[in-house]
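Exam prep: given the inputs below (a chain plus adenosine-5'-diphosphate), describe the expected output before reading on.
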Amino acid sequence: MLDFFFKPKTVAVIGASREPGKVGHDVLRNLLDFNFPGHIFPINPKADEILGLKAYPSILEVPEDVDLVVIAVRAPFVPEVIDQCGQKGVKAAVVLTSGFKETGLEGAKLEKKLVETARSHGIRIIGPNCLGILDTYSRLNATFAGLKPIKGEIGFFSQSGALCLAVLEWSKAEKIGLSRFVSLGNKCDVNEIECLRMLAEDPHTKVIMGYIEGITDGRAFTEVACEVAREKPVIIFKSGTTAAGARAASSHTGSLAGSEQAFEASVKRSGLIRAKTLREFFNLALYFAFMPPLAGPYLGIVTNSGGPGIVAADACENSALELPSLSSETVEKLRKVLPPYASFYNPVDITGDADAARYEKTLEVLIEDQRLNGLLVILSRTATVNPDEVAEILTKDKAQKPIVACFLGEESVKKARKKLLKGKVPHYEYPEEAVKVLEKAWLYEWWRKKPPSKVKKLKVNFKQVAETLQIVRSEGRSHLLDHEVKQILEAYGFVFPKSLVARTTDEAILAAKVIGYPVVLKVLSPQIQHKSDVGGVKVNIRDEEELIKAFEEIIINVRKRLPGISVLGVIVQEMAPKGKEVIVGFIRDPQFGPLVMFGLGGIYVEVLKDVTFRLAPLAKEEALEMIREIKAYPVLKGIRGEPEVDMDSLARAIVSMGQLAADFPELSEGEVNPLIVGPKGQKTIAVDARLSLGGEK
Ligand code: ADP
Ligand code: MG
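Solution:
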């Protein structure tokens, strides 16, 4: 895939220059310095020879076929140059030139012209406005970066040229080689999805790193990422995720969702390894370049000082990792090699008077302990330990178990750190960083091991929803009435409490008699979104007297807080049996499509923000994962002797909400809040719901 770019036999540099410092010069220099084995043709009408190579006035004059062109002429000339490339039969062009879409409307027009010209000739484009591409195996350095890359196993793609440079420098400093490297620039043609596929297919790439700013087609990206992540670790750093879509939300789901949540939902489904900071991006890459994923969550820690060991243990406590206690056999063996005052728990504290030999003997024992999936070795500089010797030990036969190191200090451990990296042992400055990386190394493996989740369609009444929506449309409405919301959600399996509308106190008394006490009263007004905010909800009304009082209070509250608003009356509702309040909703993201939200519900949703998102539709296992993921999960499991809530029914509600969102694109957002869920055997009840049609918002 994209082989013309990465394995060309011949390359032409259009806009090649004799002046060092110019892009058209530096890229040619790099091609030569990296010993590109094929022919290189500089194109420049004003030169006969550049850097010892014969120059040609135009690509059309080149006497051989040209596989790849690298373009560095000024922006207005690029479309014409592409046209010539087309006549020449070129298949691939890297456009380094800037001055396109990134500069505004005029630039965007020029870029459109460039794309159209390329398409008409079947030429693929990387860029424009990029740093170039690199393949260390075909010895192609078509970048204008001032650094000589080293060969290795990391394939990298990036939307930012500056980040490309940062990765090149990092790779050089840490002696971690690169296989391929793509600076996507404005990605007018080749995009992140194709890069993922291309790096997945490249046999020299073992680990993929990607820096993304924007994703054009979130769904396609997720699908490809799902496939690729099964084969190779894909570490993604995405910036620009905090600016939540500025939408005037009519639901809690809407106000809590944004591009960050959508991307996170994509990551959860696809098994991408997401770095939250630039530092973590490099930390993770370092790990995966040298070590296999962690096969399980059980970590062993060795340290020669208490403090850093505790710091690491604390970090584990807040992660998906566990510090198992050591088996009695392991402890027995450790007793033979450690002084009696050492700590034989996990972390194993071999104490401040330890030397390298003590590290070695301890590691030998811990490596043999089958329960431990990986080891973290912490070293603090002391008079007795020589960090270089410990580094040496760690780089020896480390194949049996992933090991990472954390040598605390600066100057005194510099050499040892270098040694570790040279010996392919990941090293981190701080214990917390090491733990974070190991956690992600385990979560990735966990994702890889679980069978791909399959979305199974629930039996629902699709026809009913289609009919209800048809009626709304035929009446030219963009607003769904309460009974329509109920009808739609009932068709998808949600159960509502009995309720009746009452315009007067007398009607309310009658309604309550029909429904049976206790009841709930809620203000009925199409203009009120959140009823309890205005004192419009009264629960647990046990008799007529309370009912009359509640009715009056609601009317007074609403009149006071929202003077002039039209109140149609109240809804008298059956009181749902006791249970936990959760929220299940959906929203549409412009890039990632429908998203389902689940979380702790009720009136504090937006304050607590204990919610999680997935792409819709979703599998039941994903719904169960969502339930386990929220902070309030222990509450749903039941605390202080309470019974566990009906997880099955909850998962079904989440799946069915996702299905509704996927089945009816005209529904822009919706939610049930709260959905009251009790122990198994008790009906899960939707006591409040809303749905919006597209465009309404
Ligand atoms: P809103 O969200 O518009 O303020 P809700 O209908 O969600 O109004 O009611 C607010 C709160 O009142 C709910 O979170 C729930 O605690 C309680 N509640 C509402 N209806 C019922 C009901 N039928 N049974 C039990 N509790 C209810
Ligand atoms: Mg509500």
